Amino acid sequence: MKIIIYGAGVMATYVKEAIINSGNEFTGFVDPLGNGDFETLKNINEDYDGIIDFSHFSLLDEILETAIEKKVPVIIATTGHTKEQTKKIAEAAEKIPIIKATNTSVGVAVLNEITAYATRLLKGFDIEIIEKHHNRKLDAPSGTANTLLEIINQNTNDEYEIVYGREGQKKRTGEEIGVHSIRAGNIVGEHTVIYSKNDEIIEIKHEALSRKIFADGAVKAILYLKKKKSGMYNMKDVLSIK
Fold first, then answer.
1. What is the mean pLDDT for each group of 10 consecutive residues in the chain (242 residues)?
2. CATH code of the domain covering residue 159
3. Quick check: pTM over 0.85?
4. Active-site residue among 95, 137, 226, 228?
5. Which of 36, 46, 98, 141 makes an SS bond possible with 8, Cβ 3.0 to 4.6 Å?
6. Which domain holds residue 227?
7. Is 133 labeled as catalytic in the residue annotation?
């Protein structure tokens, strides 16, 4: 499979290595700032069978338009999309296969499933989420933390207030979920979901030791989409988690 990468940063380099190591063909980097092999997807003479996007959510339109035109699958591994952009992704998925993932690692896909199961079982437990990343990360909370929040809400009948960080003299209630973001050094990524009630605590944790895991997962995902018809898929589908 011939794969093009939208983006030319650190993650893009890892994805290139993952493509080559998987026995597939790397077509090139696309970067509007001129740091890649191409500045735009339009009018590229090279053939390619799929697009992996590790760029910026603001570049979504060009990616979707070109993918639809060429009828190739897309992995969208960026975060921060607006509701309008999310709608555009859903509409594009009616024409091409797409995976939009806030995290492309195998372990986080499993973390999501465990969190869904634990939330259904541990009713009445206080829930807190802690995420840690390097000091250069712009968004907080992370996309993965936001996905965990969505999963928790989907697997409970309770209505939670989301509290980002905590300060002051206010007592915690049972109707809230605390979300805490830490930015320090070169932390690749760590996510912990804490369930606590009375005298017991359960922690579910995933720690990334290298960005390589995200690259490997993204390549696994694009290879999965190559065999699929148009539609919206996720990392759970890639791993065949029932």
1. 95 96 96 92 90 95 96 94 95 97 94 97 96 94 95 94 93 94 97 97 97 96 95 91 57
2. 3.30.360.10
3. yes
4. 137
5. 36
6. 2-100+211-238
7. yes
Same domain membership, residue 89 and residue 11: yes
pLDDT of residue 42: 87
Nearest to 149 by CA among 132, 166, 131, 162: 162
Pick the catalytic residue from 133, 180, 191, 206.
133
The CATH number linked to 22 is 3.40.50.720
- Rounded distance between C-alpha atoms, residue 200 and residue 193, angstroms: 14
pLDDT at residue 217, rounded to an integer: 96
Same domain, yes or no, for 68 and 111?
no
Q: Is 77 helix (H, G, I), strand (E, B) or coil?
A: coil
**CB atoms near residue 217 (< 10 Å):** 26
> In angstroms, rounded to a whole number, what is the distance separating the alpha carbons of residues 131 and 190?
6
Do 219 and 144 reside in the same domain of the chain?
A: no
Q: Residue 242: what pLDDT?
A: 54
